[in-house]
Write a structure and sequence with these properties.
This protein is an alpha/beta fold. Helix content is 49%, strand content 15%. The protein has a five-stranded parallel β-sheet with strand order 2-1-3-4-5, with helices on both faces. 20% of the residues are buried.
């Protein structure tokens, strides 16, 4: 994805940018890879920084504010952001509250697909957002598996086995039944069965299982 971001910047001739990463393994790794590639495409990095992930830390707010002030000082119009949803949300919220002018934000699905980030009040004031997501694919047999699962749950045999299992459980856990789940049907979940995040999870689990095998 870092290489795709560089190609996008090169395609539009955006060579004066800021890059921000969350101070965790993902943010540091993605930003480091991006910087190593960007240098080979005549892209000048006016600012590079890391934003906190621990918001219980009293210094977190100051770090975010300092990051935004430094970005503003460089007068860049392009910000590349490698972060998960919570750090990204915090940076965007502070950008809005501090009146950062409209920018072009480039991100990855780590925060691009987050409902919390896109539902920030006045989010439209940050400017234009461009992002990359993993190409979706079909997980073989997944839809049938879910359909069969719903069918089995509706059968008396399954319910009987479930009741017998509950009798063997500790009494403290008997009242944890999710009543809100009872009315959910296959129709209710069918729209998310082809969600773009399912296929990457399948590939990751399959890769680990194959390696162990």
């Amino acid at each position: 994805c870092a290489e795709a971001v560089v190609l996008l910047l090169h395609r539009f001739g955006w060579n004066w940018i800021a890059t921000v990463g969350s101070d965790d393994e993902y943010g540091r790794g993605a930003q480091g890879l991006f910087l190593s590639i960007a240098g080979n495409h005549s892209i000048c990095i006016a600012f590079e920084g890391l934003i906190p992930t621990d918001f219980a830390d009293p210094k977190a707010k100051n770090q975010l504010e300092d990051t935004i002030k430094l970005i503003n000082k460089t007068k860049v119009n392009i910000i590349v952001l490698f972060a998960f949803s919570q750090p990204a949300q915090a940076l965007l919220e502070h950008s809005i509250s501090m009146g950062l002018s409209e920018k072009v934000w480039i991100g990855t699905e780590a925060w691009m697909l987050s409902d919390t980030a896109t539902s920030i009040p006045n989010i439209q004031s940050i400017g234009t957002v461009l992002g990359f997501v993993m190409k979706a694919g079909t997980v073989p047999g997944f839809r049938k598996y879910v359909a069969d699962l719903f069918t089995s749950v509706q059968q008396d045999k399954f319910c009987q086995e479930s009741r017998e299992f509950n009798h063997l459980m500790n009494s403290d856990t008997l009242d944890t039944h999710c009543k809100q789940c009872d009315p959910i049907s296959l129709h209710d979940v069918s729209s998310v069965l082809s969600h773009s995040q399912i296929q990457p999870v399948y590939v990751a689990v399959y890769s680990v299982a194959y390696a162990l095998h």
